[in-house]
Amino acid sequence: MTSRNTIKIHHGSIVCEESKLRGDITIGSNCIIHPSAAIIAEAGPIIIGDCCLIEEQAKIIHRLPFDQSDKENTPVLIIGSHNVFEVDCTVEACKIGDNNIFESKCYVGNKLTITNGCIIGAGCRLTEEQTLKDNTIVYGRSCQMREGLDRPVPQTLQMDTLSKMLPNYHHLRKPNKKNQ
Amino acid sequence: MSYIIGSDVVRYACTCGILKPISKLYFCRHCLEVRCGFCVCHEVDSHFCGKCAENLPSSEARLKKNRCGNCYDCPSCHQQLTTRAATVGPKNPEDPKATPRKVFYLLCLLCRWSSRDVGIPDQSAVSGGWPERENIHANRLQEIQDMYKGIVLLDKQQKLEKDKKKQRRYMSFTDRTGITASMLRKRVGLPDIPHPLLKPKPKEPEPAVAKEDVEELPEELLTKPVNLCEVTTMEQRLVQPEWQPITVEKLFPIHKQLSVKRSQRCRSCEHNVSKPEYNPNSIKFKIQLFACFHIPEVRIVTVEPLRAGKTCELLLKFSNPTQHQTVITFLPVTLEMEETKISEQVTEDKSVVDDYLLEKKQPLSLTGTGSQPSSLLHASLSRQPSITVKPRPIAVPVVADITIPTSTFILPPRDDAAEYDDSGDTHNIQDDSKLVIWRKSNKAVVKLQVTPKEDLKIGDEVVAGFTMQHIYVNTITTVDNKEPQKCEHKVKVFVTLGNLVGSE
Predict the structure, then answer these.
(1) What span, in angstroms and rounded, lies between the C-alpha atoms of B325 and B29?
(2) A vs B: CB pairs below 8 A
(3) Out of A133, A140, A146, whose CB is closest to B248?
């Protein structure tokens, strides 16, 4: 499996060397990937957009539901830009738009499609097949849903701090792709 | 920590018959009984807001309907709302000197509801001055309230007049001496100034009118799919009974409910068993008679696999929380004989009291002062209980027998410095080596034999019980009793040992 790892990192991204990247992964520019984050492209390539923040212990797994696994064409997991994957979240969604926040310890199953501006609250487990509409907020023990007024604000301040701090203490993977 | 203290593997029987872990029990030093949250009087000491820690007197709290004036809860998920700051452009963008203004809005950090969601304008001050909503039925509710207040006053007045008619024969002392304005008016023959709320007949508000034509059921409820993101949930409606919003646009921040500090009082002797400090910022207590400060704590160390009818070893650790040495004796636990035993105890107590009375009377009669011995009795430590709480039988299935050891063991007093003392244990306590197998400072591990009953099935929970008798040193001093008193206190302890495994 490791031999087939093809990882493309666009310019300006900070990808720690200890992070676990498996399979065919393309990372956009200005992303931050923490040391023990895991991105596993099992069923097909993963393409991550710009300015995504993937924190410690976050897991992004591209795995297909069992009933679709024997299809001929390999699906691609496309993750939009400005997404935040907080500590210890597990995301297996088959499509993710822009400006979403996956809070700590949440779980998103592989039958879900996440659009834009959604917030999956801390500890929420979503497994049923559904498409989350724009600006949906999932919160609480029983995963209540409500519609937000606007997209969550991007975490630019946090990203700036991290991009200064992380290179001081960690070995980084070199960006190997130039921006077009 | 919680798996040691919070678990209810070892439970103590409260005087009222409820089993609880020691961390949830109180120990009344005055009647020397274990009390729990169910058998003490709870009293509200003070009202305060849990967010801003403001202390409110109870009258003000009632006026504000037990809610804080400044803090808000989220109407969507009922968590606290936090104030967030945002910067907006200056009022007149043409002026180059104008600095950007700061505005504040409310935000819920759990569900991300914000006051902007429902169009509440941002405020320019941190503390807000958020718009209050007027209940449309406020006038009607006030009218009804006033009416009932009037009725209560009228009732009182009528009762007073009834009493007056009976007593009018004589001039009372108060009429002659302490003359109040109202009395003077009465004597001169002027009518009394009526109470502002007192009217000959309380004004009745308009009665509610039954309406026949109600709104038709909107057809779209049946034809259109419901968007659950727009309607409110039952909880969201019921938390605001005055408005009961149906759609999420009508959710407005709720004033935060006040918390109370309460003190617990023993029901039999009316002494406090727990009293917090008034200051809402303080987490300390003025009085804290928690059982874990007075009664030896029991923990299970290990137990051999439990098999029906087979004897197995049980190791229990005892620790003494008090500053006095104690002796622990095991006694069998009795569940059925509860009632008779108590009545026996009562008669015994009575005889003791009688003896005491006799003793007191004799020297008194000799001196010939003739003072009341009963008052002396009251001054003694054993205060007469004002309410007798009848203990209930303990409802727990004890399915294992513990062989009660005949020997006792000593627990030295607790010494907080012992932990840092490396000199080793220098105690020379003669222990029954069959019973006590380990000892360190104020702790000791004892070995007991436990036998689950024959008729248990595999997987059944095994509960065993014993009565622990310990010497309790009461340090309360009274007028005629300066020395700390030693007494034997018994408490029933039930240990849940786990499930029965196969009996080979």
Answers:
(1) 17
(2) 33
(3) A146
The structural domains of chain A, with segments of one domain joined by +, span 2-173
A147 touches B: beta carbon within 8 Å: yes
ipTM topping 0.85: no
pLDDT interval class at B340 (50, 70, 90):
very low
Backbone φ and ψ for B459, nearest 5 degrees, come out as 95, -10
Alpha-helix residue ranges (DSSP H) falling in A57-155: none
B77/A149 CB distance under 8 A:
no
Q: Is any Cβ of chain A less than 8 angstroms from the Cβ of B25?
A: no
CA distance B124 to B132: 16
More confident residue, B243 or A86: A86
Judge whether residue B136 has pLDDT over 70.
yes
Report the DSSP beta bridge partners of residue B434: none
* A124 CB within 8 Å of a chain B CB: no
Q: CA B60, CA A172: separation in Å to the nearest integer?
A: 61
Å from B110 to nearest chain A CA? 7
Output phi, psi for B306, to 5 deg.
-90, 125
Chain B residues touching residue A145 (CB < 8 angstroms): 228-229
φ/ψ of residue B129, rounded to 5 = 85, 45
Question: Which chain B residues are within 8 Å of A149, Cβ to Cβ?
Answer: 114, 116-117
Structural contact between residues B442 and B415, judged by C-beta atoms closer than 8 angstroms: yes
Per-residue pLDDT, B177: 57
> Residue B434: is its pLDDT beyond 90?
no
Residue written as token pair 């729990």 = B36
| B379 vs A176, higher pLDDT | A176
Nearest to B111 among A133, A146, A152 (CB): A146
On chain A, the residues whose CB falls within 8 A of the CB of B120 are none
- Partners of B105 on chain A (C-beta within 8 Å) are none
Q: Which residues of A touch B230 (CB under 8 A)?
A: 147
Q: Which CATH superfamily is domain A2-173 in?
A: Hexapeptide repeat proteins (2.160.10.10)
pLDDT for B181 = 63
B252 touches B113 (CB < 8 A): no
Q: Which residue has the tokens 């064409």?
A: A73
Only one residue has tokens 């969201």, namely B236
Q: Report pLDDT for B448.
A: 92
Give the amino acid at B393.
P
Which CA distances in Å does B229 have to B76, B232, B266, B499? 11, 8, 50, 47
Interface of A with B in 31-50 (CB under 8 A): none
Give the burial class of B49: count Cβ atoms within 10 A of its Cβ; 0-12 exposed, 13-18 middle, 19 or more buried: buried
- Cα–Cα distance for residue pair B495/B312, rounded to 1 Å: 14
B305: pLDDT strictly greater than 80: yes
Nearest chain A residue to B118 by CA distance is: A149
Does residue B327 carry a pLDDT above 70?
yes
Beta strands A32-33 and A53-54, pairing class: parallel
